[in-house]
Amino acid sequence: MIINLDEISREQGRSRQTISNYLYYLRTCFVIKELKNFKGSFKVSSRKLKKYYPIHPCVALALGKPDQGKVVENLIQFVSQSDHFWRESDKETDFILSKDNSILPIESKYSKHIRMRDIKGIIKFMDQFDVGTGLVITEDYEAEKIDNGRIIRFVPLWKWMLK
Q1: Beta 32-37 vs 84-88: how paired, if at all?
Q2: Domain coordinates of the chain in residue numbers?
C-alpha cells in the first residue's frame, strides 16, 4: 500500500517522525519492504510517497486473509526484488526494474481477462520514459501486443516464476 505519513500521523494522533520511525524499525527488522516512486532521479524519488509490502507473501498470509491479487502482487515484488514503482496522477505501474541502463516496467494483473484499459498505467510509463518493452503478469493469459511500437508481453505467473 502507498503510505502518506502526514495522513497516518493525523489519524493516529502521533507525530510524523514517530510514524516514520516505526516504518524504519519494520524495514530494519525485515518485516516490510519500501518501494520508492520512480522519477528518474534518486533525490526526487526519495521525497515522493512510498509503497510498502510485507517482506514475504507468507507474512501477509499470516496476518489475515488478504485479497489473492494483493498476495500475487507481493509475490512478484518478492521475486523481482524491485525497489521502485511508478505513479503519476491516476496512472500507476506496480514495479520498475532498473539495471544496467535498461528499464522494465512490470504490472501485476492476476486475472484471466485483461483489457487494454487495465494496462493504461504501464503504457503511460513506457511512453513517458521511452521504454520499448513492458511485462504484465497474469493468471493464465499469454500474448504479446504492440501498442504504438511498444511491446507488451502478457505472461502467466507460473511461467514467469519458472524463468
Answers
A1: parallel
A2: 31-162
Question: What is the Cα–Cα distance from 44 to 6, expressed in whole angstroms?
Answer: 18
Could you list the beta-strand ranges (E) of 4-160.
32-37, 50-54, 84-88, 91-99, 102-109, 133-138, 143-147, 150-156
| The overall pTM is greater than 0.90 | no
**20 near 12, Cβ under 8 Å?**
no
User: Which tens digit of pLDDT belongs to each residue from 11-66?
Assistant: 999 999 999 999 999 999 999 999 999 987 555 555 668 999 999 999 888 888 88
Q: Helices 5-12 and 16-28 sit at what angle, rounded to 10 degrees?
A: 110
Closest CA to 39 of 162, 129, 112: 129
Task: Look at strands 102-109 and 133-138 and give their pairing.
Answer: parallel
Q: How confident is the model at residue 72 (pLDDT cuts 50, 70, 90)?
A: very high
CB 86 within 8 A of CB 93: yes
Which residues does 6 contact at the CB level (< 8 Å), separation at least 6? 16
Q: Please provide the average confidence, as pLDDT, over all residues in the chain.
A: 90
